Structure formats: C-alpha cells, structure tokens
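Technical appendix A lists one of the benchmark inputs used to test multi-chain prediction within the project. The record comprises two sequence entries:
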Amino acid sequence: MTERDVVIKNRAGIHARPAALIVQTASRFKSKVAFRNEHEEINAKSIMGIITLGAGYNSSLTIKADGEDEAEAVHALSQLFENRFEEE
Amino acid sequence: MQRFTVLDLLNLDLKEHNALDLRCLGGRPGLSREIRVPDLNRPGLALTGFFENFGPERIQIFGRGETAYLEKLAEAGEVDNIQRLLSREDVPCVLFTHTLEPTKDFFELAERYGCPILQTDLASSEFQSRLMRALSNVFAAQETKHGVLVEVFGIGVLILGDSGVGKSEAALELVERGHRLVADDAVEIRCVAGNILLGYGTNASLGHHMEIRGLGIINITHLFGVGAIRDKKQVQLIVELEVWDSDKSYDRIGAEERTRDLLGVKVAYLQVPVKPGRNIPVIIETAAMNERLKKMGYYSAREFNQSVLKWLETESARSRHFHERDPIGFDDLSTG
C-alpha cells in the first residue's frame, strides 16, 4: 500500500476534464487506486465518483494505491496534480 | 457517375410536387443522348440566328414565347436556324412546356436529326425549378459506404465498422425495437442542396434485405412490415463500431464535439467499442436521443460539467469562509 497527499492547484478544481485524465491514467495500472478526503474514499477508475468528490481549489486529497505497480501509479497520478491537469 | 441519358430523365420516378410530367413526342432514337450538365437554356436568341455563347449541351426549353416565335418562322417558311439548332448532336433534347407542340417542320427536322422532343404539362417557370432540383440531385456528389443506415427516433444513423463487428445485428435489433431500416451493407450517400447528406440503398428493387450470419438473407419488409423501412434518410450521425481495444482510450465525457467529413459535410461522429455484454442497440438509441437533445441546444456533457464547475466554486468559497478567520470578526462575536 502506497499513499501520498496531494493538493489541487488548478483554479477550477476537479471537473470533468481532469477527472477523465485521472481515470485514463489510473486505468493504465493494475493496482487498485483510490482517492480519500476527510469523508469518503472512492475508486480512482470511476469518473463519476471522482467528480462527485467535489475537490475544489486548494483542497487536499490522499491517493492510495494497492497492488504490484502501486508506486508507479501514485507517482503518475501525483504528477497530474503537480501539472495542474495541464490547465492554467 | 453513370451516363445519365434523356431516357433516364423520362424514367425519373418523382412524386407530387417533384413530378416532371414528361412524355416523348418524337426523335426517339436520340433518347440515348447523354445529359452532361445539370442546366437548361431558353433558345430564343438561337432561333433568331444568334448562336454566340449558345449552351448546346443544356436541355433546351421552349416556352410560350419560343413556340410563338416558331410559328412566326413557320409562316415565313424559315427553317435555317431551327435546322442549325436541331442538327447539333451535343443538344441532349428539346422540351416544350405548357403542353405546347412544335410546328410541323420543327417536328420533321427533329425526327431527321434524331433530336428527342419532350413535352410537359407544367408551366415554364415551375418546370424549370423542378428540373433544376431533379438534375442537381442526379448530379450531386456521391459516395458508397459499407455500413447500415437506420432511422432511430427520427435521426438518420449511419453505422460503420469492419465486417463481422455486428453492424447488421445491431441494426436488426434496432428494427425490432421499432426503428426503421434504410439500407444495409451498401449505403449510397448523396450531397444535396450543398450540405444535406441523403442516404439510399444502392438498389431500390433489392433494398431492405439483410444478411444475418446464421440466418442468411432476410426480408425486413415482410418480417417487420412497411413501418420498419424507409427509402431514404438524411445522415445526421455516424456511429463507428470497433472491437474493444484495451490499450485505446475512448471518450469518457463527450463534451467535445467530434465530427467526420463525408463528401465535404461535417457529421457528428461517435466511436463505440464493442465487446460481449455491451448492448450496442441501446447505446445507439441513446446516442440518437442525445443527438436530438443537442439539436434542441441541450448538451448533456457540457451542461453537466458547468454544474460541476459551479458546485466546485461554491464549495471552495464555503470552505474559505469557514476556515479562514473572516475580517468582520463574526468568529470573535460568537465565541464571545
């Protein structure tokens, strides 16, 4: 199990386009990937789940991955957050 | 395009307000002449002997004025200009409107040179607009696509994909669900009026049959009734079926409008991956309804995302309000 905290840095937060990027990236890995905020935990391979997290600007999330390629998955996903999902 | 002859023009099966009401009065050997351009000419000036910039390859229309002038020429016994006109083999045919008839010498000359004489009951202006409409359909750009054209909730859906991916099976289930089949296997697409793509079956007399693997050839009209078929339909949506490729990423949101170019016209385009357990007919039905919504100005994916953005905005404003000490000092008041 690998975990990492990330902060949403793009102004619009996680709307449909970033969610699609996340799902696309997460689906490349075999591991189980999930996001957690203070209330809930959702599957990172489900687009509607990620959108309904309601992750806005400056809020933080924890990426959790469990499986053979967990480190790579967490790295790839946190890279997306770092790059502000190629926005602004 | 195949040769379009004067005989083909006579045989055009057009209905009601499109009908040309044509009959042939004479010059039958010339019915095999080809019509090369979708255009017509009023040969008034040619009859007076002025042949400069004369358009011989066009259909020559004789209305009331030209016919009256022909009678004047007959009274004077002049046939030179008529002969000059009718002897040209590049003239496809001459055509009399208002049920008018040619003079005797005109008729004899046309017979001699084998230039077909056609006649219609319609008035010249009405006939000309109908003829232009018919000819522009005949001369429209066209392309034959390997696929199935079905009408789903009023939307013309062209299903494309490789052989064996299940196009016909998907169409069969759509027909079973009450939608209409336009053409299976080979769909002829014509671009009419500049930007409307009309799809037909390639052969009207063999149309509305389908080949289903394991069943063979079935007749949709007999099996499902006339309500299950249509002769032509505008292509408004292209759905391309392809075998599911797990390495490929498919559109998950649909906020971007994808189009595909067909005969220079952009048509809404969807790529739908197929794998066992995916109900393709239901997906196509839903795509057609979504297309109708879009035509009404409602874009599901875009408006969903707008609601998400709005919601995220209010959420983040709320959290700022509750987590930062507010400048007015409500926090201090409440805690005393």
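Residues 70-82 of chain A form the longest helix (13 residues). Chain A touches chain B at residues 12-17, 19-20, 23-24, 27, 47, 51, 54-59 (CB under 8 Å). Comparable benchmark entries are summarised in Table A2.
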